């Protein structure tokens, strides 16, 4: 009856309704839950796990110590944009490039100094030997984010969305996007940030730059204050609580040594299941970043914990889950 009830791969509730229409036995709901949880087909197309609670980055001790970089493009003109953002001041540098290369960073670093750390994704331009050698000779530590998880480098991703919005407006209005880019940067430099309450240039250079808008600095100097760190902490905690609640975030139950399935991050077609049937073993876990190993090939992958599904019960490829559930039910009946 369990095998017949699970034909067509209904979920737990639908299968209960289907079987209760014609039969019942003690422990029926537990048997249905067990066969649904151990169905290989249902497991491969099930929804991914919820993301883990956010971990907010603390404000650095000084400006231009910890920065994040990313490439944006290609644009319709064939150009790329190199975006660099300072975690302390929210100050950003944008360089227009025809060819992706790390040498353009020297133009910025010679003017502002070498940062201590750089947070970046796993783009091909950042995993080259040339770029790693560039950073090593300048004593810069690279913090690479988890593959296919852009939220880990959320600061630069949010800034890129704002930047793309202005470029789309420029494109739609048939304007010179390079001039509009300069206007956008001037606006960012002279506008107080929502979390610190200070302008990026004030936190980076110690002064506010003048824009076209008249200010009190034209007639006098305002009394300086030092409340930006408290404002930043309160705003980040408020944002963390809101985002964790909105995403239903919960701590991951995945531990080292668990058998897991890995989500298909690049789906080939509409019928590609959500998870790859190959069983992986968790080799290491550092917060939400998990390293899994293919036991057959020995190849390792880095993924966010929400891209992995812990296997409870029988592993795929070792017999039909329905047969195992039926065997367990027969042994329980004999007892």
Question: In short, what is this structure?
Answer:
35% of the residues lie in helices and 16% in strands.
Oligomer: single chain
For the termini, the CA-CA separation is 20 Å
Shape: elongated
> Could you tell me the number of beta strands?
10
Number of helices: 11
Secondary structural class: alpha+beta
The main pleated sheet reads as: 5 strands, mixed
Helix content: 25-40%
Q: What are the segments in which pLDDT stays under 50 over at least 5 consecutive residues?
A: 314-335
Strand content: 15-25%
Overall pLDDT: 84
**Strands ordered across the widest β-sheet:** 3-2-1-4-5
Taking all Cα atoms into account, the compactness measure Rg is 27 Å
């Amino acid at each position: 009856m369990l095998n017949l009830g699970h034909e067509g791969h209904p979920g737990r509730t639908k299968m209960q309704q289907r079987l209760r229409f014609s039969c019942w036995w003690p422990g029926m709901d537990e048997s249905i839950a067990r066969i649904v949880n151990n169905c290989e087909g249902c497991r491969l197309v099930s929804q991914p796990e919820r993301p883990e609670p956010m971990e907010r980055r603390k404000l650095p001790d000084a400006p231009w110590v910890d920065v994040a970089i990313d490439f944006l493009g290609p644009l319709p003109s064939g150009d790329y944009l190199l975006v660099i953002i300072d975690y302390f001041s929210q100050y950003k540098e944008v360089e227009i490039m025809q060819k992706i290369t790390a040498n353009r960073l020297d133009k910025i670093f010679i003017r502002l100094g070498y940062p201590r750390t750089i947070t970046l994704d796993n783009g091909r331009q950042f995993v080259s030997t040339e770029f790693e050698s560039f950073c090593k000779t300048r004593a810069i530590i690279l913090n690479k984010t988890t593959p296919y998880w852009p939220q880990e480098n959320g600061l630069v991703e949010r800034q890129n969305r704002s930047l793309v919005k202005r470029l789309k407006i420029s494109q739609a209005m048939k304007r010179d996007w390079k001039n509009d880019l300069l206007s956008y940067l001037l606006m960012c430099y002279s506008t107080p940030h929502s979390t610190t309450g200070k302008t990026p240039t004030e936190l980076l250079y110690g002064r506010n730059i003048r824009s076209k808008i008249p200010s009190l600095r034209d007639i006098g100097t305002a009394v300086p204050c030092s409340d930006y760190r408290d404002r930043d902490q309160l705003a980040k905690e408020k944002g963390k609580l809101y985002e964790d609640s909105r995403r239903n975030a919960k701590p991951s139950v995945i531990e080292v040594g668990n058998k897991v399935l890995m989500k298909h991050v690049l789906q080939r077609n509409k019928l590609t299941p959500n998870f790859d049937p190959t069983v992986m073993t968790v080799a290491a876990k550092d917060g939400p970043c998990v390293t899994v190993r293919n036991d057959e090939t020995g190849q390792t992958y880095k993924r966010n914990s929400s891209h992995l599904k812990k296997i409870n019960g029988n592993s795929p490829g070792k017999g039909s889950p329905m047969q195992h559930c039926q065997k367990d039910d027969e042994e329980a009946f004999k007892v």
